[in-house]
Specification:
19% of the residues lie in helices and 38% in strands. By secondary structure, it is an alpha+beta fold. Helix 1 packs across helix 2. Bound molecules: zinc ion. The site of zinc ion has 6 residues, from helix 1.
Length: 239
């Protein structure tokens, strides 16, 4: 399996690793460790470059497989050998925007749950843009402005963002986690990664986040839509 360096250090932009398998058909390599996020939980996969023996390949997409994290290699140069040492470099501008956006989505979730007890049912993001779906029957145009102000207040509060990796049983003892549907975790998952916006939001989450909500910057709610009587979608953008 690939050691997931981004799980404990989301600010790691550059790393070295060993190639543990090569997939010629899909032009991809498996690494023993990686800082590239393979996508999931609404956060898109990282891009960047992989340098091997003086050659630099573009890495347009990391992807999770049963064996670990596969890294696609662009171009048509011959693939590197198994066992070779590589240096990975993340497209940091894009990734840092995604970290800010992902943390912004958790602020939004936290605020909407704290103030209206509305549950999130899904979400998606790209750099500096995202949408979230809520079971939120009473959402209105006026409320959207109130929510936007409440989110930016949490940015101004500069809340610490803490990441913990807990044994499954310990995680199940945290009442706040129940609402993020932790119960749906498959039984073979024995540890749960927890992302906490201290004082606001606590979720089981595999994504990469900033260290402090002040890094998010201004968030604007740009639109909202009814997806039925109960289900509402909120669209946000970061400056
Ligand atoms: Zn998340």
């Amino acid at each position: 399996m690939t050691d997931l360096l981004y799980q404990t250090d989301s600010y790691l932009r550059k790393f070295t690793a060993k190639i543990t398998d090569v997939d010629e058909a899909n032009r991809a390599v498996l690494l023993n460790q990686t800082a590239f996020y393979p996508g999931g939980g609404g956060q898109p996969a990282d891009m960047g470059t992989l340098a091997v023996a003086g050659k630099t390949y573009t890495m347009p997409r990391a992807r999770k497989g049963p064996e670990g994290i596969w890294h696609s290699l662009g171009g048509d140069e011959p693939l590197p050998q198994m066992g070779a040492e590589v240096e990975g470099q993340i497209d940091w501008e894009r990734r840092y925007q995604l970290m800010r956006t992902h943390t912004a989505m958790h602020i939004l979730c936290g605020v909407v749950f704290r103030d209206y007890k509305a549950l999130v049912t899904g979400g998606d993001m790209e750099p500096l843009k995202g949408r979230m779906d809520f079971e939120f029957e009473t959402l209105s145009k006026e409320l959207v402005g109130v929510i936007e102000a409440a989110v930016n207040k949490e940015v101004d509060k500069a809340l610490a963002v803490r990441v913990d990796i807990l044994p499954r049983q310990k995680a199940f003892e945290i009442p706040d986690l129940i609402r993020t549907k932790i119960n749906l975790l498959p039984p073979e998952i024995q540890v749960v990664r927890i992302v906490e916006l201290v004082g606001l939001d606590l979720q089981a989450d595999g994504g990469t986040h900033v260290h402090n909500t002040s890094e998010v910057g201004r968030m604007r709610v740009v639109d909202y839509k009814s997806k039925g009587k109960i289900n509402k979608r909120i669209y946000v953008e970061l400056e």
